[in-house]
Amino acid sequence: MSQQKTLIAVIGGAEPTPEEARLAEEVGRQLARKGAVVVCGGLGGVMEAACRGASSEGGLTVGILPGGSAANANPFVQVPIVTGIGYARNIAVVNSARVVIAVGGSYGTLSEIAHALQNGIPVIGLNTWSLSRAGREDISIILTEDPARAVSIAMRLALGLAGDE
Amino acid sequence: MSQQKTLIAVIGGAEPTPEEARLAEEVGRQLARKGAVVVCGGLGGVMEAACRGASSEGGLTVGILPGGSAANANPFVQVPIVTGIGYARNIAVVNSARVVIAVGGSYGTLSEIAHALQNGIPVIGLNTWSLSRAGREDISIILTEDPARAVSIAMRLALGLAGDE
Amino acid sequence: MSQQKTLIAVIGGAEPTPEEARLAEEVGRQLARKGAVVVCGGLGGVMEAACRGASSEGGLTVGILPGGSAANANPFVQVPIVTGIGYARNIAVVNSARVVIAVGGSYGTLSEIAHALQNGIPVIGLNTWSLSRAGREDISIILTEDPARAVSIAMRLALGLAGDE
Amino acid sequence: MSQQKTLIAVIGGAEPTPEEARLAEEVGRQLARKGAVVVCGGLGGVMEAACRGASSEGGLTVGILPGGSAANANPFVQVPIVTGIGYARNIAVVNSARVVIAVGGSYGTLSEIAHALQNGIPVIGLNTWSLSRAGREDISIILTEDPARAVSIAMRLALGLAGDE
Description:
Four copies of one chain form a homotetramer. Chain A is about 35% helix and about 20% strand. With about 160 residues, chain A is of the alpha/beta class. Chain A has a seven-stranded parallel β-sheet, sandwiched between helices. In chain A, helix 1 crosses helix 5. Chain A is globular and about 35 Å long. Chains C and D meet through helix 4 and strand 7 of C and helix 4 and strand 7 of D. Strand 7 of chain C pairs antiparallel with strand 7 of chain D.
C-alpha cells in the first residue's frame, strides 16, 4: 500500500502579471486545503506565489530547481530538489505531478505543457497558451478562469473520480 | 579561431506522413549540400529521413539519443550521442543547433519548438504547430512549405547573413 | 526566512546484503527522529530500507526516481520525484542533500559519492568504497560502522555545528 | 548496415599537470590516426589537449558541453553538443563511447569512471584514480602509462578484437 502523497504541479513564469500571481497564490491555497502537495520549479513569480499560498494553509511545497544550489529556491519551498540540469528540470516538474495547472507563462511554460501532454498528464490552464495543429482536434488543455474550479477539476482527475463537480 | 561546424537541427515525429518524410529527407539533402551538419534525435521517422537525405549527399549526421545505447540509432546516424536522459535530450537537440527546422511532429516536437524559442534559436516550420497567446504578437516560427527555401533561410540565419534570399 | 527542511541523502545499492539493509533502515529511523527528511533514489534495497526506517518514525521521505513513472517507487516513498533522466538523477539525489550517507553500494553509489565530493557535500560511509589517488591526501569520506553515529555526525554537519558529538 | 563511427571518450580534468596534458594530446593524436572520433566534455585542460591532438591529425572531435552555449567549447571542438544539463552531461560523454580513456582527473573524472563501469564500458587509465571495495576483486580499470598503448588497447576493445596487440 503506497504512502505516496498527491502531487499537483503549478507552472508559470517568473514574471507574472499581478493577476497571474493572484491566481497562482489562490491555486496554491486551494491545493493545500484539499491535501495536495504543490510541486513547482522552485523559483519566483508564479512558482513563489503558488508556494506562498500552499504554505499559508499548512501545505507541503516541493521546488524542483534548475541550478546547483538550494539557495535560489523561493522562501516558501520546503523541500528543495537541486537538479543542476537546467531547463531539463521542467520535465521532472510535470512528470512528478498527477495533474498540471498552468498559470500564464512564456516558452518555458509552453515546453512544460508539451511535456505533460506527451506523457498523458492532464493540463488545466488559467490565462495560458493556446495550441493548434492542422488535422488534430484532440489537444486537451482544460481552460478555466477560476482558480477554485481549476483545483476542483485537478483533484478529481488526480484521484480518478468520474463525473463533474 | 573556432573549428566548429554549422549544426542545423531537424526535428519531427517518429511517425510522419509520407509527405513529411519526403520533406525531411529533402531538407537533409539540402543541408548536406550547403555543408551543414544535421543534428536530430537519432531515432526513426522524420529523424531518419533527414539523416538519410544528408548521408546520401555525403553530409555528417549526429543523433542525440534518449536511451542508454547507440543500438537504437537509425542506420544513417554517423555520430550517436547516447544521453540516457530520455526526453530531456530534446533540449540538447535544439540547443546544439544554430537554427531548428521542424517538420510535422507531435507534442515532443512542440516541446522542442518551445525550448528553441526560449533560447532564442530561430525555428523554421514545415507543416507543424501553430502557437498563440493572448497579448503576444512576437511568436516567431517561420512557416514555409518548400524544403529548399527552409534550408536557404536556415543557412542565412545560421551564418548571420542579412537580407532576403 | 527560509522554510526549507533539512534533507539528508541515503545512497546505496538496490541489492544490499542483509547487514547493509539493516544499517540503512536504522539510518532512516535515526534521521526521522532528528527531524531530517530522507532523500534517496526511490527504488529498492538500501533506498527502500532507509525510507521504511524513516517512515516508521513518522519522517518524510523523498524518492528521486530515474524512470518516467511514480509506480516504480518503493512503497515508503511519500514524495516521488519523477525525473525520467535515468542515472543522471543520481546527481540530483546528492545535490539535494546537505550531507550524504552511503551504505554499501556498487558503481552507481560510487558515482554519487564522486558527485557529492565534487560539489563539496560531506559524505559519511558505512561499509562502502575506498578511494585513492596519487598525490591527493584530501579525500574525505567519513567512515564509521555505527548508524547512530553516522546520523549524529550528519546532523551536526547539516546544521553547521562545530565540535564533536 | 550502420554508418556509425567509432567514438572513444577522453576524460580528465580542466586543470591537468603538463604531463597529463601531454598524455592527453598524444592520446588524441593516436586516436585520430586510427580513425576514431574523439568525444569529450568539450572544455579545457585534458579535453582541449585531446581535441588538439586529434584535430592536428585530421580527426573528428565532439564536445558534449555542460552549459547552454557552444561558445564555451575549446577551439578544437568541431561538433559541439550543447546539453545545458551541467555535470549530468558526464554520463552522456562516457555512454557515447565504446571505450573510455581517463587521464588524471579529479572528482568529475571519478564520476565518469563510475558511470562507465556501471554501464559496462571499458576504462583505460593513465595516471588516474584507484578504486577498491571490500569483497570486490573485479574492478576493471586497465592501467598503463603509455598513450600509444592505451589507444591500441582501446581500439581493440572498441572493434571487438580478441588477443593481445
